[in-house]
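Subject: Predicted fold for EamA family transporter, 291 residues

User T.R. writes:
Posting the sequence so we have a shared reference for the thread.
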Amino acid sequence: MDKGTTTGHITALITIAIWGTTFISTKILLTEFTPIEILFYRFLLGLIVLITVYPKRLKLRDKKQEIIFAAAGLCGICLYYLLENIALTYTMASNVGVIISVAPFFTAVLSHLFMKTEEKLKVQFFVGFSVAMIGVCLISFNGSKLNLNPIGDILAIAAAFVWAVYSLLTRKISSFGYHTIQTTRRIFVYGIIFMLPFLIIFDFNLNVQNFIKPEYTINLSYLGIGASALCFVTWNYAVKILGAVKTSVYIYMVPVITVVTSVIVLKETITWMAMLGIGFTLMGLFLSERR
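User M.O. replies:
I've generated the structure tokens; pasting them so everyone works from the same file.
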């Protein structure tokens, strides 16, 4: 494994490590903010940070590339999070957690169909996917009864599919040769633009008093600076180095990080089923990434 590939794996791991802990900040913020408000504020803050860190304007070499950026903003920033949040209002979080983990499968299929230059799919990918999904199910349901809800589950499937499309779009964008921060910043701009109509639909409310409270400011900053500005740059960079399929496989790790964080931060007890699930998930990740 060369140095560039190693860096790609490290950045993917860093991204997932942060994304797997965001549920704590979101849970705290939901006491005063609505899901759409959290979504808008975190990406607006993320955009401001990216502009501050790298203010150089992106000049496109081909105007047709603008369509790809717009599509990436629509899928990865706007639709994915909206579909996921709405799905959570209809079905159990465990269902959503499992279904979202199907995103690597969608990514692999779409990559095979539309991106012939991407890494070829092998049997080990599907074996790894199956093993990882067993682990994710054990972690997410953890002994609870499976309760299907057609509307919520279909929305979660749509979210996973949209994220797969976003992964392929960022792979395409990486081939343009622009700086990763510049491209991520442009994707954020389009994501926020597409988000604006939903602010009206979901009764967006600007309450300045909420920002005065330290616990809200800290957690919103974590989501905006860490989970948005930093993580989308590192994720897009990993996709550029590893490819859409290999990077998306790291999504299997999100439930694992969530369980570990719950034990460390929230002092929750880890069950034998969750431990078994972590083992299966890590094994599936290893099988999918192994050459």
